[in-house]
Design a protein that fits this description.
With 338 residues, the chain is α+β, with helices and mostly antiparallel strands. It has two domains: 2-169, no CATH class; 183-315, Beta-grasp domain (Ubiquitin-like (UB roll), Roll). Helix content is 46%, strand content 8%. The radius of gyration is 20 Å and the shape is globular. The protein starts with a helix and ends with a helix. The protein binds FE2/S2 (inorganic) cluster. The site of FE2/S2 (inorganic) cluster has 12 residues, from loops.
Length: 338
């Protein structure tokens, strides 16, 4: 079967549009382990299929990226083995990758099963190999399928599939990760003396024990982050020197650089105001009526407790463009044009 199987599988994946993915994710979500339920949703917001397709179809992708003010690492192809580092299931990536490549090459008639069923099958194979609950491998497997769809099987196979997590992070159980996310700081006497308000820890990379900053109760996330004077611009060139780990430009909800995913503690952030909701929609990051969604603008969200966030590796302004692009795709779909 080999190469022919791979081509059939790729063709099947290329037929999966945003609607098909929404449907698959809705079917999978109740079966995802809690430790990766929110993380998986965040990942799919960080790497939207429609934007990847629009860039692939563009005559001049670099010009389109400039038009949409895309900054940072927005291409999944440049981060196949690392884009999902914030998922607990990232630790199973080498096995998931191997299993998916083998599955893609031997599947004869992929269209006979739904996307969700294919994902379930590969996740179950990895879970069996690692002797885990399948709920732990489901999110990272869904991520792997979407990665193949966006970058192609050849590019997916070409990366080494290795991960770099320190042994302490690797040893953490899902329950320990969830307990850490739920924990709030005990207020020490020193802080009561130094600050009139409570002080909370904001974690911006759960895999790095150094990746935290302090936030005084009710501060905006970006205001607190700016007190962290470490050279974050060496890790992410979008970061402004001396302004902390979250990229910022305007601090007023105008530029979109400061979007973050909220892995834990979303309920300890201020409710979203209409302005933030509208801006998130205009940037293209999320459309939601939830008062405390999983994607926020860090310059608009205030914290009232310890929170764990993820900083996406890129930012842009593409909401209006994608709405138009989707409208243009619809007549072509009705005519049967791929
Ligand atoms: S810093 Fe510009 S939108 Fe937040």
């Amino acid at each position: 079967m080999g190469a022919e199987g791979g081509r059939l599988f790729e063709a099947f994946l290329n037929q999966q549009d945003e609607e098909a993915w929404q449907c698959a994710l809705a079917q999978l979500e109740p079966h995802l382990h809690e430790v990766d339920r929110t993380a998986t949703r965040i990942w799919f917001h960080f790497f939207p299929l429609a934007l990847a397709r629009a860039l692939q179809e563009a005559e001049d992708p670099a010009a389109l990226a400039r038009q949409l003010f895309l900054e940072g690492k927005y291409r999944l192809a440049d981060q196949i083995d690392s884009s999902h580092r914030f998922l607990y299931g990232h630790r199973y990536w080498p096995e998931v990758k191997r299993a998916l490549i083998a599955y893609a090459h031997r599947t004869r008639a992929p269209e006979r099963m739904s996307l969700a069923d294919h994902i379930r099958e590969v996740a179950a194979m990895v879970a069996e190999e690692r002797r885990l609950e399948p709920s732990l491998t489901l999110g990272i497997t869904a991520v792997a399928f979407m990665t193949v769809e966006q970058v192609g099987l050849e590019a997916f196979q070409a990366t080494p599939g290795t991960i770099a997590l320190d042994p302490r992070t690797l040893a953490r159980t899902p329950d320990e990760v969830l307990a850490r996310r739920a924990r709030d700081d005990r207020q020490r006497l020193f802080y009561w003396w130094k600050y009139p308000d409570k002080v909370w820890t904001i974690t911006f990379d759960e895999n790095d024990p150094e990746a935290t900053f302090r936030l005084i109760n009710r501060q905006h996330l970006t205001t607190a982050a700016a007190q962290d004077k470490r050279p974050h611009h060496l890790r992410d060139p979008r970061c402004v020197p001396n302004e902390g780990p979250i990229p910022v430009q305007c601090r007023s909800g105008s530029c979109g650089s400061c979007w973050v995913g909220v892995l834990g503690g979303a309920e300890k952030l201020s409710e979203m105001e209409e302005y933030e909701r509208r801006r998130l929609r205009e940037f293209g990051y999320i459309e939601t009526d939830e008062p405390k969604p999983i994607i926020r603008l860090a310059c608009q969200a205030r914290a009232f407790g310890a929170v764990s966030i993820v900083i996406p590796p890129w930012n842009g302004v593409f909401g209006r463009f994608l709405r138009k692009w989707r409208q243009q795709q619809r007549p072509m779909e009705l005519m049967g044009t791929p």
